[in-house]
Design a protein that fits this description.
By secondary structure, the chain is mainly alpha-helical. It contains 15 helices and no strands.
Length: 292
């Protein structure tokens, strides 16, 4: 792994939680409920918040962009999604939710000079991204930049995580891992317990069929554990993901990236300290603060 690929992975761990808090915070659910979305489960608000930059897309486009979710689950939650609220209304709601969330977590620190400097650095990285074949990153970059520094930092984190995510899908396709197989193979290396992937909506039969396909390829053993070949393939996927995510960090440079990590540290710490993210993530990142 090159130095810039390592930097890309390190900065992903720093920036992903800053973005992801939207999908778990009470304020995020409150703003979605105010628009009329069902918040008994987090998925209607998740799909609305995440895909709103793409416009009023339907189930097929959502399944293509979100990849690892079951198409039948997406069909359930996305059909009629834009009859409840327009993408423009959802985009405003998600900014309101982010602002409320971070004001609750950080208080007056949301307007501090450190946040403003972090936002400037993160924006430089985000605006340097190449967006060919990266619909989520491109759609978010097409949105106006928020004027408030904290929201600009969150928006930059969103562009950067979607840029990486779009590249990750390219890596999965290169490895010939279909949406369900991508999760089965990830669980097989011990990334998270199988039960944690239930939220992606695949039935037991679909999961078992994907397991059988991977077993036939010699990637997973009958017990569900990755074989040596399976681990090597997942390593290939993660290496390619890091390489494809490296460009914005190469443009920003290691010194400024490390400065961004330091400046964003209190924001990241507030997210972890509040316990808003799941204790065990299916994303492959740490979601609890490491002990001092």
């Amino acid at each position: 792994m090159s130095d810039v690929s390592r930097l890309a992975r390190s900065m992903w761990h720093q920036m992903e939680p800053i973005h992801a808090v939207l999908y778990f915070s009470p304020e995020g659910f409150e703003e979605a409920a105010a628009l009329g979305y069902d918040v008994e489960t987090r998925w209607p608000s998740y799909f609305a918040y995440r895909t709103a930059p793409l416009g009023a897309v339907g189930p097929r486009a959502t399944a293509a962009a979100c990849y690892s979710f079951s198409p039948s689950m997406i069909q359930e939650h996305v059909t009629g999604l834009w009859d409840t609220a327009s993408p423009a209304q959802v985009l405003q709601a998600r900014l309101t939710a982010v602002e409320r969330t971070y004001r609750a977590l950080l208080g007056d620190r949301v307007a501090g000079p450190e946040v403003a400097e972090a936002a400037e650095l993160a924006r430089r990285a985000a605006e340097s991204t190449a967006v060919a074949a990266r619909p989520f990153a491109a759609a978010n970059l097409d949105l106006p930049w928020p004027e408030e520094p904290l929201l600009a930092l969150w928006h930059a984190a969103t562009v950067l995580r979607e840029h990486r995510g779009d590249g990750h899908l390219a890596a999965l396709l290169t490895a010939d891992l279909d949406p369900c197989e991508s999760l089965v193979s990830f669980a097989a290396i011990g990334a998270a317990p199988v039960a944690n992937f239930a939220g992606r909506g695949w039935s037991e039969q679909e999961w078992a069929a994907a397991h059988e396909r991977l077993t036939a390829r010699g990637l997973v053993d009958p017990s569900g554990q990755a074989t040596e070949r399976g681990r090597a393939l997942r390593d290939q996927v993660e290496r390619m993901t890091d390489e494809l995510a490296a460009a914005p960090w190469r443009a920003l440079g290691e010194e400024r990236a490390q400065r961004l990590a330091v400046l964003a540290g209190p924001v990241l710490g507030a997210v972890f300290g509040a316990g808003l993210l799941p204790m065990t993530s299916t994303l492959g990142i740490a979601t609890v603060k490491a002990p001092d």
